[in-house]
Structures are given as structure tokens and as C-alpha cells.
Amino acid sequence: MHTQDSEVVPVPAWPFSLVVFSCGGCWSVTAKMLRNLLALRQIGQRTISTASRRHFKNKVPEKQKLFQEDDEIPLYLKGGVADALLYRATMILTVGGAAYAIYELAVASFPKKQE
């Protein structure tokens, strides 16, 4: 990457000390990249250290009661309508996929006759 006419230019960027290589006007690190790096660092610190805590109602005891009831409903359907829809969609895709696989195996096992 370095040619005979390239020069080394120090760039003051707190808290980093950086060296940028100039090749006839082409800079490998720009000021915009440094600003983005500093902004990303600040966002990361803010997210970890000063994130606001959202207060939600603890629903675990309610869910425990619901799932521990002995009401002859299968566990995978106790979540309500969404669970029932997901269960039915999964069953349809499973049965349909198995039928399609058997069909394709049957088609592949009896090749077409060539004239």
C-alpha cells in the first residue's frame, strides 16, 4: 500500500493517537470515520451504563398459574389463540411437506420413458 511518494501525517484525535497515510491526496482514514467511531463509543457507553429501566408488571406468577392448571388442555395450546394458530400452521406445513416429499420420491422412482 505504501509507495515512495506517500507521507505519514499524524492526526490529533483525542483519546486516540492515530497515523494516517496520504497517497497523493487519498486519505485512508477520514475525519468523518473518526467522528463515527467516537459517536459509536459514546452510544455504547450510554447504552450500558445509563439506560433507563422500564418498569413492567411481573406476569410470571400469572403465567405459572395458567400453565400449572390441570384443565386437560395440552401445554402447547395454553398460550391462547396465537399458540393454536402456530400449532395448526406447523401441522399443516409438516403434513404438506411430508406428502410432497413422498410425491417427489414416487416421481423420481419411476422415470419417464425416452422415445
Provide tags for this entry.
alpha+beta, Cytochrome C Oxidase, Chain J, 2 domains, 3-stranded antiparallel β-sheet, 3 helices, 3 strands, flat, transmembrane, oxidoreductase, transmembrane helix, Cyt_c_oxidase_su7a_sf
Concise synopsis of the structure shown:
With 115 residues, this protein is of the alpha+beta class. The protein is built from three helices and three strands.
Measured on Cα atoms, how large is the radius of gyration?
Answer: 32 Å
- Percentage of residues in strands: 5-15%
Arrangement of strands in the largest sheet = 1-2-3
Question: How many strands?
Answer: 3
How many structural domains can be distinguished in the coordinates?
A: 2
CATH architecture of the largest domain: Irregular
Overall mean pLDDT score? 78
Query: Uncertain segments of ≥5 residues (pLDDT<50)?
Result: none
CATH class of the largest domain: Few Secondary Structures
Structural class: alpha+beta
Order of helices and strands: EEEHHH
Distance between the termini: 63 Å
Pfam families: COX7a (PF02238)
Protein name: Cytochrome c oxidase subunit 7A2, mitochondrial
Keywords: Acetylation, Membrane, Mitochondrion, Mitochondrion inner membrane, Oxidoreductase, Transit peptide, Transmembrane, Transmembrane helix
Transmembrane segments: 12-31, 85-103
Explain this structure to me?
It is a single chain. The chain is 50% helix and 15% strand. The chain is built from three helices and three strands; from the N terminus they run βββααα. The protein is an alpha+beta fold and 115 residues long. It is flat. The mean pLDDT is 78. A three-stranded antiparallel β-sheet has the order 1-2-3, with no helix packed on it. The protein has helices spanning 31-49, 60-68, 81-109, and strands spanning 7-13, 16-23, 26-27. The termini are far apart. Strand 2 and strand 3 form a beta hairpin. The protein folds into two domains: 23-56; 59-110, Cytochrome C Oxidase, Chain J (Irregular).
